[in-house]
Automatic annotation (TrEMBL):
<keyword id="KW-0813">Transport</keyword>
<feature type="transmembrane region" description="Helical">
    <location>
        <begin position="219"/>
        <end position="238"/>
    </location>
</feature>
<feature type="domain" description="ABC transmembrane type-1">
    <location>
        <begin position="58"/>
        <end position="238"/>
    </location>
</feature>
<feature type="transmembrane region" description="Helical">
    <location>
        <begin position="96"/>
        <end position="116"/>
    </location>
</feature>
<keyword id="KW-1003">Cell membrane</keyword>
<dbReference type="Pfam" id="PF00528">
    <property type="entry name" value="BPD_transp_1"/>
</dbReference>
<keyword id="KW-0812">Transmembrane</keyword>
<keyword id="KW-0472">Membrane</keyword>
<dbReference type="GO" id="GO:0055085">
    <property type="term" value="P:transmembrane transport"/>
</dbReference>
<comment type="similarity">
    <text>Belongs to the binding-protein-dependent transport system permease family.</text>
</comment>
<feature type="transmembrane region" description="Helical">
    <location>
        <begin position="64"/>
        <end position="84"/>
    </location>
</feature>
<keyword id="KW-1133">Transmembrane helix</keyword>
<dbReference type="InterPro" id="IPR035906">
    <property type="entry name" value="MetI-like_sf"/>
</dbReference>
<dbReference type="GO" id="GO:0005886">
    <property type="term" value="C:plasma membrane"/>
</dbReference>
<feature type="transmembrane region" description="Helical">
    <location>
        <begin position="176"/>
        <end position="199"/>
    </location>
</feature>
<protein>
    <submittedName>
        <fullName>ABC transporter permease</fullName>
    </submittedName>
</protein>
<dbReference type="InterPro" id="IPR000515">
    <property type="entry name" value="MetI-like"/>
</dbReference>
Amino acid sequence: MKKFLHVYIYSTLIAVALLGLWIYITNFTELLDPVIFPSPEIVVIAFVKAIKELLQGFVSSMGLLVPGFVLSLVLGIGGGLYFGLHHRFRAILEPFFQTFSPLPPTLFVPYAIALFPSFKSASIFILFIATFWPIFLGTIQGVLLIDKPYWDNAKTIGLKGKDLFLKMILPASLPLILNGVGTSLAFAFIVLIMVEMFGAESGMGRFIQYYTDFTQYDLVLAGIIFNSIVILITMIVFEKIKKRLLFWTNLKNEAN
């Protein structure tokens, strides 16, 4: 607890201040419409009552996000390493990478609906499109930015084939790969909520949209808070995994 407060003391104070401001405005002023902006006590009660439905929505959402994101990891990292190491093929296809990567994934929604047999498979495809490019391009960039001394040292000690890949190329490019993964993970939640709000029968985004339609804003805010908690926990876990995988960079920073 002491370590947590030492790291997040100011974040905690800001959160407490915002909560206090919310309580004051909703309970002691008439600045906000109480229907749209219910007090924290009402939202907490709604949150507790809806927790089972929220957890069911979480499971449904992960059924879309996890397959799409895992597919992006496999093809994004695998493809990025291949094109990063093969200049000729990368030069041929790079104009296509630069053309398609900035396109919003929502542009592909009509085709996903038309081509895939179910909402779930279409959503997984959209999530894949949304999360693939940051991982793919980050991996290519990671390979291209490997310092020349690394290649020279690998050649000197005779690293080839699998050993060269596992002991030099992958570790050296991992920081930028993980930066791309982190960007994709954050973007995945944005696209997931958006997709669910317009077509899903269940899920974290669907929960918010459903209760918005019935103007039950206590449940809408409960859903927003639940989504925020899920995203926060996911990103904290990812950062811990990233820190563990990049342990040598932490040692280098401590040495400096």
